[in-house]
Amino acid sequence: MKEIILKKFEEVFGDAEGAKAYFAPGRVNLIGEHTDYNGGHVFPCALTIGTYGVARVRKDRRLRFYSMNFEQLGVLESSIDDLKPEKEAEWTNYPKGVMWAFGERGFQIPWGMDILLNGNIPNGSGLSSSASVEVLTGYILRDLFGFEVTNQDLALIGQYSENNFNGVNCGIMDQFAIAMGKKNHAIFLDTADLSYTYAPVKLEGAKIVIACSNKKRGLGDSKYNERRSECETALEELQKVVDIKSLGDLTEEQFEQYKSAIKDPVRVKRAKHAVYENQRTIKAVEALKANDIAQFGQLMNASHVSLKDDYEVTGIELDTLVEEAWKIEGVIGSRMTGAGFGGCTVSLVKDEAIDSFIENVGKAYLSKIGYSADFYAVEIGDGPCTL
Q1: 42-55, pLDDT tens digit by residue?
Q2: Which residue, among 276, 319, 272, 321, has the nearest Cα to 299 in the 3D structure?
Q3: Low-confidence ranges of the chain (pLDDT < 70)
Q4: 10 Å Cβ neighbour count for 118?
Q5: Would you call 351 a catalytic residue per the annotation?
Q6: Across-strand partners of 380?
Q7: β-pair type (185-190, 206-212)
Q8: What are the tens digits of pLDDT across the range 66-124?
Q9: Residues of 69-79 as b/e, b for ≥16 C-beta within 10 angstroms?
Q10: Cα-based angle 346, 349, 353 (whole degrees, multiple of 5)
Q11: How far apart are CA 13 and CA 62, in angstroms?
Q12: Distance (Å, rounded) from C-alpha 342 to C-alpha 125?
């Protein structure tokens, strides 16, 4: 891939002198969905697919961007002195947002850049192509300009830029999983205080299979922000009767004890998902440590049911993928992953069942939904790096 992107950089920008190549992964969350902005736990891992980039410092303040995924857009130009979100800036709003966020933190970027990107994460899939671009941009800025920031800082800067520059009220999980990824490990992250541990994921005889629904979704115009505000209101109501900082502070028993404080039945369901999903995530990591993959799979299945019934973020596409997966012998567990409303499912599938899983789930999906899903057997990879 390094040769391919350097060659393309040369084609687009005239030569590749002084250019360096980089990579940042995508991520998938194994369990713990819509808990990250509710002060709960998540359990994501970085993937071996992600975003490749080539970057070079210029001697002026111009920014020139090119994406091999959106070649029809050609070279998109702007300036370090004009970092503001614009519709016509298309995908470059993500790297520009990170440059702006560095500036907000007091890291002034002295020169412009030529940047080329090529991602092999399916776009709009829910595997965090935007967060991958953000972490990659931060990694490039640190490398080229010598800014003293840690990988954890890169995650926080990426989240800050997505919240405040691109207007998507996302939690920290995506950027954190990408910036802090570790091969063959998932990250057990407490989003309330960013304490984390790495848990080895030993899937002897099984693989993670991602099914992409190919239903595109935009986070900003989805119901993501609506769910977030429903949970915030539920939390305020609960705080009148119990001393908590977040929904993640409650056990299932405490939630059942105090839930009558929530004045709206819809908000009760939303808060219930946040509390129960957090507890499921804690139990899932314990199951993994005990080498109980079957229990891990059952918790994944329960997570999907909760996301469908209580949080209502699945939709016919994701439900079809998961319900068909559950019918296949050799599927340990399957659930939607990501924000929902389209995007992907994640399944743990025994090696000998992968072919029949892809064939049968794919066939059923096409017949019910009318277009195809794409399938990827993936591995857990490291965080960002220089190539």
Answers
A1: 999 999 999 999 99
A2: 276
A3: 123-126, 128, 216-222
A4: 17
A5: no
A6: 47
A7: unpaired
A8: 999 999 999 999 999 999 999 888 999 999 999 999 999 999 999 999 999 999 887 66
A9: ebeeeeebebe
A10: 135
A11: 13
A12: 7
Phi and psi dihedrals of 303, rounded to 5? Answer: -60, -45
Stretch (H or E) spanning 321: helix 315-326
Annotated catalytic residue: which of 36, 174, 249, 310? Answer: 174
DSSP codes of every residue in 96-137: HHHHHHHHHTT----S-EEEEEEE-SPTTSSS-HHHHHHHHH
State which H helix or E strand residue 70 sits in: none
At residue 292, what is the residue type? D
- Alpha-carbon distance of 377 to 192, in angstroms, equals 32
pLDDT at 215: 85
Are β-strands 113-119 and 62-67 bridged in parallel, bridged antiparallel, or unpaired?
Answer: parallel
Give residue 220's pLDDT. Answer: 44
Burial code (b: 16+ CB inside 10 Å, e: under 16) for 234-265 equals bbebbeeeeeeebbbbbeeeebeebbebbeee
What pLDDT, on the 0 to 100 scale, is given for residue 168? 82
Q: For residue 172, report the phi and psi dihedrals to the nearest 5 degrees.
A: -90, -15
Q: Which residues pair with 318 in a beta bridge?
A: none
Closest among 298, 360, 356, 306 to 336, alpha carbons compared:
306
Instruction: Indicate the pTM of the whole model.
Output: 0.88
Tell me the CATH architecture of domain 2-201.
2-Layer Sandwich (3.30)
- Return the residue matching tokens 């736990």: 41
Residue 41 has φ and ψ, to the nearest 5°, of -100, 150
Cβ burial, residue 205 (10 Å; 0-12/13-18/19+): exposed
> Which 8-state DSSP code applies to residue 299?
H
The span from the CA of 63 to the CA of 84, in Å, is 13
> Cα–Cα distance between 133 and 118 in angstroms, integer?
10
Sign of CA dihedral 40, 45, 46, 49: negative
